[in-house]
Amino acid sequence: PLANRFIHLNLDADIDSFKEYALGRNLDERLIAFLAFRPELLHNHATGHSAWPSPRSWEMASQLLTADIPLQHAVGDAAAAEFEAFIKIYQSLPELEPILKGKTDLEFPKEPSARYAVTVGLTIRSTTPKRAEYAIEWMGRNAPMEWFQLFAGDLITRLRKSGKGGELVKSV
């Protein structure tokens, strides 16, 4: 009887829409990179568990990361364990700052999770037109085309949401 008092809508979680939302809300970049790598974990309702991954719980997880509180309280044990494994890869990445200053000859990573981490990391750190220009140049020289396209799409979305899209166009 209680369920009959509500409207039940079935919505599909979409990683591209969530990523756009997450970039606009400045969610933790590690979390965005992880979900880009493992989009099936964006929403995975596990019946019988008190916490499971969903767009809402990943946003809460971003806040938990800031407070240094374990993520399983928001997204469940399995998703949190996969995220922790991803973080180990993320921490082993080369420093991105030289790329954003135009001073590096680093190669684009080979491992898929590291590729997502670098792509999202550069997107988030491209906070000025000059930094974005250097990131675009580096990605254009080093990344396969599909990774460059992923980066460019996310960068444009992020800059547009922050109101800085026109600055990049004027500087290039």
Q: Could you walk me through the main structural features you see in this protein, from its secondary elements to its overall organization?
A:
This protein has 172 residues and is mainly alpha-helical. Helix content is 63%, strand content 0%. The chain has helices spanning 15-24, 29-37, 55-67, 72-75, 77-91, 97-100, 112-125, 129-142, 145-162, 165-171. It is globular and about 65 Å long. It starts with 14 loop residues before the first helix and ends with a helix. The model has no long low-confidence stretch (mean pLDDT 89).
Low-pLDDT runs of 5+ residues are: none
Order of helices and strands: HHHHHHHHHH
- Calculate the mean pLDDT score and round it: 89
User: For the terminal residues, how far apart are their CA atoms?
Assistant: 61 Å
The total beta strand count reads: 0
Question: Over the alpha carbons, how many angstroms does the gyration radius reach?
Answer: 18 Å
Total number of helical segments?
10
